[in-house]
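Entry 14. Ran structure prediction on the chain below.
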Amino acid sequence: MLKRFYKSLFFARRFYTALVAVIVLFLLSYGIPFFFVIAQLGLLFIALAVTLDYLVLFGRRDPVIARRENAERFSNGDPNPVKLVVTNQYPFTVSLHIIDELPEQFQRRNFSLDCQLKAGERRELPYQLRPTERGEYVFHSINVFIKSPFNLLIRRKILEAEKMVKVLPSYFPLKQYELMAWSNNRSENGKKRSRKVGHSLEFEQIKEYVTGDDIRSLNWNATARKGGQLMVNKFTDEKSQQIYCVIDKGRIMKMPFGGMSLLDYAINATLILSRVALIKQDKAGLVTFADEIGTFLPAGRKAMQMSQILEVLYNQQTKFLETDYEKLYALIRTRITQRSLIVLFTNFESLSGLQRQLPYIRGMAKKHLLLVIFFENTGLQELREAGPEDIEGLYIKTIADKFAYEKRLIVKELNQHGIATILTAPEDLTVQTVNKYLEIKARLAI
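Output, structure tokens:
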């Protein structure tokens, strides 16, 4: 009990200042006896003030109420709002110094909030947190340090507020891209785009034959039921195509940019692209791979598809071995039988690295529309733009130019084999990917 008391009691700076002043007066009293009386009175005043401060501060069991308000889930890579709601239950004004024990992933050891509350006042103290890793984040206690009007003692009140928050792939931009997808469904003049009638797998209706209809679409069973009136099948362009996002989890995707790994950027883009594809009435699926196949989620449009994709993406981590494209090729050849759009999120730093995997990439592109997405090294871009100041700087700039040139050669090599590519900075990945998908969808290329 006594140990808990000492943990909750602190002396303020004003107390130590007053105590030092009294000590100085006692020292001076050896030469000037008059100061001895003043020092005694000062010490008595400090003792009375501290006693009064203690009675005022510790007279209430729950002097301050504080609670944390935040969402059940955080969006990775985005500023997430958090709010502390504090209420002063003292009958006088107090100054508060609040330390919220943040999850260890943020590594913010000096985070604190200060405020002054009048008697009975309630105030909201907002702040933001930007996670850069997916996973479980645990908030701990809220420590409130209370200063009384005398400001000699400080009372520490520990409020239990432990709470676990899941940090999921970035879902804040979903609304923005949903709006883009819905607006893309309409032409610039606001009218619905007309659907082109064709011979695809999506059946629309049976109608009476008129001159000009394709006789290959005659439905003889319906014709017989109509007593000889020719009936034809009407088809529309198939809207529900399969879109598979394939995420490389190899060691090359562990490279950090802006506090997040390339894998995190790929996961965020996958989440947005899957949502846009579902809005466009396509089927969204997911494949993750490294040295082994990780997850295979068949493409679908059911109501829980987005929840399943989010749940799969939540715990994905990079591996330290090189990725096995042969196993990926075998999986796609055997499990994805219908022609689909395969969006491959990966990275190549050299042309030789691409050429080792090129036979498998070309194999996937023969039966599917393959889009390979890899990353520019923005750090190299800064080195290329900086002017060299000495011979060492010139060497560094030359090497940076060589690596950038290799990236362009990779794009050229893939394009020569008819494989669509996107070379993008990590922060532009989501926009580039969604725009490319909408372009492919508009060209009916799938």
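Residues 397 and 445 are 41 Å apart (CA to CA). Will compare against last week's run tomorrow.
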